[in-house]
Amino acid sequence: MATAFMVGARHLFYGISMLSKYRNMGWKKFYLIYTTSDETFSVNYSMDVPENIDRGWTYFWVSFLDQMYWVAGAAIGAVFGSFITIDLDGLDFVMTAMFIVIFLGQWEKDGKRLKAVLIDHVPEFIGIFGSIAALMVFGPDRFIIPAMVIILVLLLAFRKPLEKNMNKKESAT
Amino acid sequence: MTISQMIITIILVIAATVLTRFLPYIIFREGKEIPGTVQYLGKVLAPAVFGLLIIYCLRNVNFAAGNHGVPEIISIAAVIALYQIKHDMLVPMAGGTVLYMILIRIM
Fold it and tell me: Which residue of A lies nearest to B53 if distances are taken between CA atoms?
């Protein structure tokens, strides 16, 4: 159970990030929380849902479709996997590529000013370098929780300057 | 492992998984004001977590031996470059992945 908790710990971060976005959704909220996966969280968090579209149903369909893709993909793979003879080695890089694209999208949202590139993207830097540090110390199988701790500590340490910068950006728009 | 041991293990794993998902929403119930610290974290955690996820995907890359992670580095650069050219998800992801699959076969 401890291992499952360690593997799932990042979902605590996802939950905190989506607290305000998943408000006032009634029964859908239960389903949304349950089906949050890395990709569903990344997409739902990064989406700017237009004003005239219902956010609740948008998040719902993203989550639902993602869950269907997972279930169908796993099922099809299980049944037909042995029939695939072409060498698909390296296909799993698509997941890395996806998170890079999501990261880049968030990076641009956080600021495009060249002069402020460092302060605008402190959370990104903390995420990347904190994780690398944890990876080097704890190895690939054990670094997630330490990485999350490092990220949490550093983000809280930088709170004053970061909040000031965020207010500056908000009042500038 | 006996059948009952397997069933109990599965139940515990489900419980741990569900707990990690719902805990933030249980602690910070709707209707109550979310504390300032948590609101702040809600804004800054995501960018950091996206960084963590990238490193997680690359955690087993060996930079000291083998192909030294060169296919990964080149493919990551390609994803970033393609994203500047075509600002969507499909082109950078497909292009980067295809490039990667080619590179690991020739390096």
Answer: A99
Looking at beta carbons, which residues of chain A come within 8 Å of B34? 19-20
A150 exposure class (CB count in 10 Å sphere: 0-12, 13-18, 19+): buried
Which residues in chain A touch residue B28, judged by CB atoms under 8 angstroms apart?
A: 16, 19
- Hey, which of A16-25, A51-60, B48-57 has the most confident mean pLDDT? B48-57
Tell me what percent of the residues of chain A surpass a pLDDT of 90. Answer: 42
Alpha carbon of B50: minimum distance to chain A alpha carbons (Å): 6
Nearest CA distance, A99 vs chain B (angstrom): 6
Q: What is the pLDDT along chain B (107 residues), one digit of tens a residue?
A: 788 889 998 898 888 888 888 888 888 887 778 888 888 998 899 899 999 999 999 999 988 888 889 999 999 999 999 999 999 889 999 999 999 999 999 98
Cα dihedral B63/B65/B67/B70 (nearest 10): 20
> What's the pTM value of the predicted model, to 2 decimals?
0.83
**In chain B, what residues touch A103 (CB-CB under 8 Å)?**
47, 50-51, 53-54
Pairwise CB contact (< 8 Å): A4 & B42: no
Exposed / middle / buried, residue A9 (Cβ in 10 Å: 0-12, 13-18, 19+)? middle
Q: How far, in Å, CA of B65 to CA of A31, rounded?
A: 44
- The burial class, CB within 10 Å (0-12 / 13-18 / 19+), for A54 is exposed
